[in-house]
C-alpha cells in the first residue's frame, strides 16, 4: 500500500439518510399538508475495519402510522439520528445536517406575520451534552444551511452515540408560501474517522475530534487536486 492509499484507509465517509417532503392540498382544510416520505437507505457501509450504522429508531417506528408522516406548518415529528460503531476500531463520529431554506413569511406566536425572509424550513434542539457543532464547517448557502457536529468522545466498538436531536419541527409558514408540488429534503450524513495512527492534536477528546475532522478536510482537498 502506498502512502496515499494508507491515508485514505484511515478515513471513511458513510451513510446518507434523507427525508422527502411533498406539498399538497386537501379540500376543507385551511393549510397545506406536507407528507414525509423517507428515501430508501443503505444500512451498512464498511471499509477496512471501520463500520458504522446510522440509526433513527423513533423515525423508523412511524412506519405503521400513516398520519405520523403527514406534516403541517409548526408540527414536530420524531427524528433521532445516532451512530453505532459496529466495527473493530475506535473512531471519531460526526453528523452533517443539511436544512433547506426558502424565502417566505412566518407566523409568530403572537399571531403577527413577519415580512418575507430567507428562512430555514426545519429546526431542532441539539444534544449539547454529547455533540458539538464545528462552527468553522458551517455553510450558509442560498437554499440551505449545512452544519457538522462532532461526537465529543471516541466511539468504541459496539457503542452508540446519543441522538444528535430527538425531533424536527417544520417552520410555521403561512398558507401558500411554498408552491404546491414542491419537494424539500433534510439530509443527515454520518462520518467516521478511525482514531488509530492518526496524529491529532488537542488536550481533550472534544478538541481531538475537531482536529481529526480538520485533517480529513485537508486530505479531501488534497485528493481533489
Would you kindly provide a written description of the structure presented here, covering whatever features stand out?
13% of the residues lie in helices and 39% in strands. It contains 3 helices and 15 strands. The two termini are 21 Å apart. The longest helix is centred in the C-terminal third of the chain and has 20 residues, at 205-224. It is mainly β and 225 residues long. The strands form 3 sheets. Strands 1, 2, 5, 8, 9, 11, 12, 13 and 15 form a 9-stranded antiparallel β-sheet that branches.
Backbone CA Rg? 19 Å
Quote the beta fraction.
Answer: 35-45%
Contiguous helical run count: 3
Q: Can you write the helix and strand succession as a string?
A: HEEEEHEEEEEEEEEEEH
Total number of strands: 15
How would you sum up the major sheet? 9 strands, antiparallel
Question: What number is the mean pLDDT?
Answer: 76
**Low-pLDDT windows of residues:** 5-47
Give the end-to-end Cα distance, rounded to a whole number of Å.
21 Å
List the helices and strands and how they pair.
Blueprint: H1 3-8, E1 11-24, E2 33-38, E3 44-47, E4 50-55, H2 57-60, E5 70-71, E6 76-78, E7 82-85, E8 91-104, E9 117-120, E10 122-123, E11 131-133, E12 139-140, E13 144-151, E14 167-170, E15 183-194, H3 205-224
Antiparallel strand pairs: 1-2, 1-15, 2-5, 3-4, 4-7, 6-14, 8-9, 8-13, 8-15, 10-14, 11-13, 12-13
